[in-house]
Design goal:
The complex is a heterodimer of chains A (about 190) and B (about 230). Chain A is α+β, with helices and mostly antiparallel strands and about 190 residues long. Helices cover about 35% and strands about 30% of the residues of chain A. Chain A has a 7-stranded mixed β-sheet, sandwiched between helices. Chain B has about 230 residues and is α/β, with parallel strands linked by helices. The chains are: A alpha+beta (about 190), B alpha/beta (about 230).
Chain lengths: ~190, ~230
């Protein structure tokens, strides 16, 4: 069975933990590396900048309907990561991002459990039609999880993903609402490795 | 700048072989992404385009739906009796239950055939201009039929072989897999016939047609890679 996780709104304390996690070399190596300013790159916002922002500035980011940001919490109430759905409302689709920042929990199925929660949110709550991910070649574990969840390889682009000064191949994988519905019931009892 | 199109019925291994060729030749690989990009051009959810490709109905489905529609219209109009030949048909309202309720899913977005084919053609021709790509299906071999620098590969295998592949891949039992393969086959043939006015597996559409029952996937990929030498020379 997968561990229990929950998605919640994102607080300033959560953003501060994201900044801390992204400062870790191992975590950063699985994510998007460093920007030209030497700060870790992230999607949609800079945790290092946002943690210092006004309440209004923080709310603008965490309440954005086009980029739904969720903190991932364990059953024990610990903040362990962040998920995002960058929603294209006219197309009823979203790009999914997930980072388990607590690297001591990697390879314990927290990523898969959080992905399932995000997919439930996307398809059942937001009523989206397609969720897609763009997975760089260096994140083999993410590729395995997406495959296990039923994502379909839609394309593989060479040297399309930049991290630090290097370009990497990446795979676009998509999941449609009816594909997920077929897969959902089989998922919970069969964790990937 | 090789461009390779790979076409074949479900269970032939088009995706596996396409990926192997793309890896070997260091090319991009594009499968369903054709439709997701086309959907962006039209500004509708991708499901409406996939419906165009996959939801061609069998005759008995259409007949079944006709009967159901008549029954629903009969019920909505409060008329009993023979639902589609008997009395009451003149008083049927024009909407079914589903239409009255209104569709709310992505498939409620309608796209005309012309919009669909224009958007798909643009995506495929843009991929051709960019080059260095393997494109799976989506009528790409017809859209790029006369373009230079393209190799069109057709794949085939007997249905029993393809059913075995689908059983393993989708964890279906044999009946489910057989039914799935037959349904997708029909949809694919109808799609290509409707939009390109040809039989999907007409051998003259391809530079080569390879049988996956008789050849290993890696051999097929190697043959395609070798053939790409013709494009360079």
């Amino acid at each position: 069975m997968f561990p229990e996780v929950a998605l919640t709104g994102t607080t300033r304390a959560d953003v501060a933990r994201m900044a801390e996690w992204l400062g870790d070399d191992d975590v950063n190596a699985m994510w998007y590396g460093l920007g030209d300013d030497g700060k870790p790159l992230h999607h949609g916002y800079s945790p290092h900048a946002l943690v210092e922002a006004s309440d209004e500035g923080l709310n603008l980011v965490v309440d954005d309907e086009a980029r739904k940001i969720y903190s991932v919490y364990s059953q024990g109430g610990e903040h362990i990561g962040e998920g995002q759905l960058a929603v294209d409302w006219p197309l009823l689709e979203a790009q999914l991002f997930l980072l388990i920042g607590r690297k001591d929990l990697w390879h314990h199925h927290y990523g898969t459990a959080a992905m399932i929660r995000l997919l439930d949110e996307a398809f059942e709550t937001l009523r989206l039609h397609r969720v897609w991910v763009d997975v760089p070649e260096y994140n083999e574990h993410a590729l395995q999880i997406c495959h296990h969840l039923g994502f379909v390889l839609e394309g593989h682009m060479r040297k399309s993903h930049r991290k630090d000064t290097e370009w990497y191949d990446s795979s676009t994988m998509g999941l449609l609402t009816e594909e997920y519905a077929r897969r959902r019931d089989r998922l919970m009892g069969s964790p990937t490795t | 700048m090789p461009v390779i199109t790979v076409n074949g019925p479900v269970g032939c291994g088009s995706v596996t072989i396409g990926q192997a060729v793309a890896d070997e030749l260091h090319l991009d690989f594009v499968d369903r992404l054709v439709f997701t990009e086309a959907a962006k051009l039209v500004g509708i959810p991708v499901g409406a385009l996939i419906d165009k490709e996959q939801r061609f109905e069998r005759f008995r489905d259409r007949l079944g739906r006709f009967v159901q529609t008549m029954l629903e219209r009969s019920a909505v109009s409060g008329v009993s009796g023979e639902p589609y030949f008997g009395r009451g048909i003149e008083t049927l309202p024009p909407e079914t239950y589903m239409e009255l309720a209104g569709e709310t899913t992505a498939t409620a977005h309608k796209v005309s055939d012309q919009e669909f084919i224009d958007a798909t053609t643009k995506v495929v021709t843009d991929l051709h201009k960019k080059g260095n790509v393997v494109i799976i299906g989506r009528g790409a071999n017809r859209i790029l039929a006369d373009m230079p620098g393209v190799i069109h590969v057709g794949l085939l295998a007997p249905i029993d072989h393809r059913v075995d592949v689908i059983m393993h891949r989708e964890r279906f039992d044999r009946d489910e897999a057989q039914s799935y393969v037959e349904e997708v086959d029909r949809a694919r043939l109808a799609f290509v016939r409707k939009f390109f006015n040809v039989h999907a597996d007409e051998p003259t559409l391809f530079h080569m047609v390879l049988n996956l029952e008789k050849m290993e996937a890696k051999t097929v990929a190697a043959v395609i890679v070798h053939a790409c030498g013709d494009l360079a020379s």
